[in-house]
Amino acid sequence: MGMLLPTMPRLDDATRAALTKIATGPTSQQRHADRARWVLALHDSGGEVRTVADTFTVSPTTVRKWTRRVAAAGVDGLQDAERSGRPLLYDDTAVRDLITLATSQPPSPAALWTHAALAAEMGERNWGVTASWVTRTLTRLQLKVHQVRGWIHRRTDPDFDTKVAAVQHVVANAALDPYPVLSLDEKTAFSVRTPVCADTRDRQGRTRREFEYVRRGTISWYGVQDVATGAVSMRRATARMDSAAFTDLLKNLQAEHGPVFTLVMDNGSAHTSKHTRQWLTEHPGVTVVHTPVHASWVNPIESVFGICVRQVLRHGVFEGTDDCDAMVQAWAERRNRSLRPVTFTWQSTPA
């Protein structure tokens, strides 16, 4: 006769059903399913510990342990108990010192901390830590000392709401304005590069492009959009994009659209220079609506630039600046075949 469990705990129907589900469930962890089977078998045998142990090739002590845990905690008793683990080598003081060090400027000439450098510096502070401990600790704290995020301290424009409202007004009413409303900005210094090998395709149809490339120069454009119709022109810059070149562009716009029109543009140096302000004073028919400071995204032409980059420039392969410009001009011509008023919705994500 097998060994009986002296105090056989009662197994209620709900617990039995839960144990049965774990014991037979296809997604149950193996160790949990085994423990559930031992407990169920012991209750079905009337407490024959030795019989159950021999059937499942485990020790009687194991059967008793999991039966008592289930009796005390239900199905949660099938879980492993918390283990103390190896005692900590370094206390919270060491962690705080590491955080303080990792968030400070590294000693010259290093620009960024490395985990090895942090471990060495901690050693100078009488903490005999290893680089691997630094790695584990920083990973747990989600401190990424090797990464740099750009940031700009933007001065507040007290007239932000007023300027945005002014841009929205002229854009929304451009079709009703008897004179043209033009959105203007520069697309500067696009680097033209040609891969040394032609593109190929992988089995999934994705383009495979050679990393090595040949520089073919840089190219810039003045982007102008008629807000009422949506027509876009990308005017290649042939000289330095300074105030003189900008006022030459304004003269060309006057020749095309007449002496009276409205310009939506940002606060770039060429747009607000003394030379440009003098020209605008001499040509009162040109009305300028400026975007707020550090808010060039309000200008509709910026969205056009984004579309051009995605559709032409980012993944294009060009033999030179002339080829690149020809592709951009073809894109603008094709886009202008289906003209539509500008209906962009402005959105700003806080930094």
Structure write-up:
The structure is a single chain. The chain has 351 residues and is of the alpha/beta class. The chain has 3 domains: 13-78; 92-141; 160-336, Nucleotidyltransferase, domain 5 (2-Layer Sandwich). The chain has helices at 13-24, 30-44, 49-56, 60-73, 92-102, 115-124, 131-141, 160-172, 243-257, 269-272, 274-282, 300-313, 321-336; strands at residues 181-195, 200-201, 207-208, 213-226, 232-236, 261-265, 286-290. It has a 5-stranded mixed beta sheet with strand order 5-4-1-6-7, with helices on both faces. A hairpin with a 5-residue loop joins β4 (213-226) and β5 (232-236). α6 (115-124) packs across α7. The mean pLDDT is 89.
**Count of alpha and pi helical runs:** 13
Number of domains: 3
Largest beta sheet, briefly?
5 strands, mixed
Over the alpha carbons, how many angstroms does the gyration radius reach? 36 Å
Structural class of the secondary structure composition? Answer: alpha/beta
CATH superfamily of the largest domain: Ribonuclease H-like superfamily/Ribonuclease H
Order of helices and strands: HHHHHHHHEEEEEHEHHEHH
| CATH topology call of the largest domain | Nucleotidyltransferase, domain 5
Low-confidence stretches: none
Give a quick precis of the structure:
The chain has helices at residues 13-24, 30-44, 49-56, 60-73, 92-102, 115-124, 131-141, 160-172, 243-257, 269-272, 274-282, 300-313, 321-336; strands at residues 181-195, 200-201, 207-208, 213-226, 232-236, 261-265, 286-290.
